[in-house]
Here is the input.
Amino acid sequence: MKHYQLKREEVIRILGDQSLKRWWVAEYAGVHKTTLRRWLQGKTRFVLNKNAERLAQVLETPLSQIAEPAKRFRGNTEKNNKNNII
Here is the structure.
């Protein structure tokens, strides 16, 4: 699966410029409002491509304006393998 890294500051700016409520954006993007909050606070570094695309649609902006493809993404499997290297 492809992942994107959100440009948090840009998303926050667009939300303010368009006077959008975060709960409304989350609902129409198909994610929980807590998930959107984590994205905007930087607690979640990577976003699935489908979620980033839906967010861009809701914000009526190009995907490239609010996100960029993640250069490196390590899932739990790779993290676990790294810790088990002797």
Summary: Residues 3-81 form a domain with the 434 Repressor (Amino-terminal Domain) fold (CATH 1.10.260.40). Residues 10 and 65 are 7 Å apart (CA to CA). Confidence is low (pLDDT under 50) at residues 77-81.
